[in-house]
Amino acid sequence: MKSLRSFFTFCFILFTLISSAQYDQSKIDKKAIEAYTKGLDKIDAQKWDDAVESFSEAIRRDPAYIDAYLSLAGVYGQLKNYEQSIKTYEKGLALDTNYTSHLRLPYAINLAGAGQFQKALNVIDALLRSPKLPASTQKAAEFRRKSFQFALDFAKTHPGNYVFAPQNLGGGINTSESEYFPSLTVAGSDMIFTRRLQGRNEDFFVAHKEDKNWGDAFRLNGSINTTQNEGAQNISQDGKWLVFTGCYRPDGAGSCDIYISYLNDDGWSEAINLGSRVNTDQWETQPCLSADKRDLYFVSRRPGGYGGSDIYVTHLGPTGRWSEPENLGPEINTSGDELTPFIHADNQTLYFASNGLQGYGAQDLFVTRKTANGKWSKPENLGYPINTVDEESALSIASDGVTAYYASDRPEGKGGLDIYSFEMRPGMRPLKTLWVKGKVFDQRTNAGLPSSVELVDIATNQTFSKVQTDETGNYLITLPLGKDYAFNVTRKGYLFYSDRFLLRNKTPDSTYQKNIPLQPIEVNAAVVLRNIFFDVKKYEIKPESGAELDRVAQFLKDNPTVRLQIEGHTDNVGSAVDNQKLSEQRARSVVNYLIYKGIKDTRLVPKGFGATQAIADNKTEEGRAQNRRTEAKVIAK
User: Fold this and answer.
1) Which domains does the chain show, CATH number per domain?
2) Is residue 493 exposed (0-12), middle (13-18) or buried (19+ Cβ within 10 Å)?
3) If residue 42 lies in a helix (H) or strand (E), which one and from where to where?
4) DSSP H or E segment with residue 69
5) What is the mean pLDDT of residues 423-452?
6) What mean pLDDT comes out for the span 605-609?
7) pTM given for the model
8) Is the dihedral of CA 575, 578, 584, 586 positive or negative?
9) What are the φ/ψ torsions at residue 309 (nearest 5 degrees)?
10) Bridge pairing between strands 310-315 and 326-327
């Protein structure tokens, strides 16, 4: 998660330290100066461990060498060894408080890096009280003061028992090269990531998880990896699409464009540029697909944004074309840079990085959630120690809503950036997400049927997710816990299929396998309308039935010659007379609703059967629930 751009910040600070030297250099041991100069050369070469050795030698030769202490402390900070950096700064600052009075900003930053925000704030406050403070130092100090105060305020409003313990994913994935941008399928058993080879060429690799351990990663097969750079990728939840960034390609519209590749029998296809609606002559990068593959979030610097790079979304239309991208708006985008969007499998929780929202330092990670009206909530900072004084970005979270993955150059890593996992802070987690998968097929021939699979939030009647099966009828659709869903499958020429997943008050641990036989539209073909609801012993249709009934109305409009018999059924509780009457009243209520929706009454026949046509044992509540049903049967086509 840490960016090498912090290196440039360090170089600026180091330059300030050197150029502002006031004490007599002639009093410093010449061998110490020689070692110190070697240390500066090692910094230029980014050989941090060698720089530590050279600066340490300078201090051994002259324990009063203030610049050596301060530079050594800066290198420790670069290495994220904040505790050692703090100790070294304190030794150097104590040698001459006057000389170092204006040079305490990096010391405060390293205090914050170690989580000592109150002490860091005290140091900054003292620095800001210094007379004749250089304007650049004052500006930087005021920025840091706001960040440190934010950290203290965050700690007051969030539980302090969260433990951040990143685990290196091991030698199967991480090497001496840099690995980053981890992306997982919904099952969590496949991880796609980018590896930078020999410090230059970026390619995609995949690793498989077995028995909680990641196997050895290997280069993606097919045509997707080329001699050009491929990076910033995202795998679709079903593992069939891969979107990524390609820069300076012959078919590109600008410096960096977004591409897509499809998994086929021969591996990953040759990449396809997503075209002029998505890509411009500006910078487009870091794409992320929603679980149903209908929404593509990405970063762009195109004109018309709020400043810097903004996050946009484009929607996949029924013709297979992407819509004109929409800016996510000022609730998320700022005058700074917003980067690395990640939409979770729950299809409503978005994580991203920003340096324009208040945080701990250069760039922090935030979370926002899609509300009932489709708007995004106010972004919330993920908090320390996920966010630090350095730059954070490129987070992904597994479907369990708990396990997060990111890339970091932590000291214990295997080299460059490594991929780590950790448990996401409670309160910042998305919904745990299960999924249902299977095959849609013709009931008579067993042939797979390309079909539309839709998930509707029963409480709001809003379409939550909609996917298209592949050519052989296979589908996968995600099921975030905490909601009740209507599940519908449609195909022209067939009676639609209806089911439901009631997950509002359930926390099942397993996913669902559901193969769906569709019936050709023919006389006597029937379907149970599982998402029509009535109160006990009532015949008034409950509001949450609207999505299902609207589906029936649309089916009749799409098939204008079809006539339906709407059948009401009850369990055997109560008298047969009462059950017969109730079933007739419920069937009539459904017919009246469909007439209200524009269906001619001549195409609809209500009929009640009471408890005479049970499909399950009435001795159990589960069986009785199955018997209380509404069916639609084709009586003319």
Assistant:
1) 6-157 (1.25.40.10), 167-423 (2.120.10.30), 432-520 (2.60.40.1120), 523-637 (3.30.1330.60)
2) exposed
3) helix 30-44
4) helix 66-78
5) 95
6) 97
7) 0.88
8) negative
9) -100, 135
10) antiparallel
